[in-house]
């Protein structure tokens, strides 16, 4: 599995930035990831999160992400059509499971598969894809990377593994969110019984 650090070093040595489609789960996680990527990557965020419930919460998180991007020049944003029904259908029967269990794996796969599919459909625009999900201190980076790698194989698009919580990514997320007045949510996203 190729890491985002390896790809960044290759880009630095070649003098050409890697064009990265970065799945964005929220503004705070992007605040922890973007400073680590700025030098080696041309980043476009992909805000595909049908798991964020209710709709008002989805809008708050999207607005927070847009506010964050006013502090990062040259980062693109794609917000594809999505519906909470897509998520609810995928996790039917798992609604009462606690955060960190099988429902989360299905949720990661749903979002990263959509990101990989978009990157595959726009191969002339992106060299690889990754996710900001690994910034979260309670997120299993190894699991997320395995899910991302599987999505990359399915769509024949390179996935770049990361653990953005390392190298002070989570602390940077907290600091920049406070400094920029970025909304920090109190639950992962789905708002189902096991998550709050």
TrEMBL record:
Pathway field: tRNA modification; tRNA-queuosine biosynthesis
Domain of life: Bacteria
GO molecular function, one term: 4 iron, 4 sulfur cluster binding
Matching InterPro entries: QueH (IPR003828)
One GO biological process term: tRNA queuosine(34) biosynthetic process
Keyword hit for Lipoprotein: no
Enzyme nomenclature, EC number: 1.17.99.6
UniProt protein name: Epoxyqueuosine reductase QueH
The species this protein was found in: Candidatus Limadaptatus stercoripullorum
């Amino acid at each position: 599995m190729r890491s985002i650090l390896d790809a960044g070093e290759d880009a630095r040595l070649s003098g050409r930035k890697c064009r990265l489609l970065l799945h964005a789960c929220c503004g705070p996680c992007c605040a922890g990831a973007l400073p680590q990527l700025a030098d080696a990557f041309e980043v476009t965020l992909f805000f595909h999160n049908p798991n964020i419930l209710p709709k008002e919460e989805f809008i708050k998180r999207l607005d927070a992400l847009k506010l964050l991007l006013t502090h990062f020049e040259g980062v693109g944003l794609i917000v594809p059509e999505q519906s909470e029904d897509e998520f609810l259908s995928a996790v039917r029967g798992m609604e009462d499971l606690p955060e960190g269990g099988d429902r989360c794996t299905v949720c990661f796969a749903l979002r990263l598969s959509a990101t990989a599919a978009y990157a595959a459909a726009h191969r002339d625009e992106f060299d690889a894809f990754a996710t900001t999900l690994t910034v979260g201190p309670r997120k299993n980076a190894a699991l997320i990377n395995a899910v991302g790698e599987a999505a990359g194989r399915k769509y024949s698009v390179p996935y770049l593994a990361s653990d953005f919580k390392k190298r002070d990514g989570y602390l940077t997320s907290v600091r920049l969110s406070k400094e920029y007045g970025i909304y920090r949510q109190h639950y992962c996203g789905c708002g189902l019984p096991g998550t709050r």
